[in-house]
Amino acid sequence: MPLYEYSCDTCSQKVELLIRGDEKPECPHCHSTTLTKLLSVVRGHVSGGGGQAAAAESCGRPQCGMGGCVGLG
Which of 3, 20, 28, 35 is spaced 20 to 30 Å from 50 by Cα? Predict the structure, then answer.
């Protein structure tokens, strides 16, 4: 079952919600159904890095693209 990240347009809270089938997402803070789906940060294991997990995060620079920067260390 997919876990999605949303930003509530009413109260500006960021939440992760488990959405099943045709369910309409609802903010758990204010119960608004006006939510914007966000792009989630991908996390994964990096081999050869001493067993540390790295997160692919965008630094905001256009040349890095979507999730192109990887913060190691």
Answer: 3
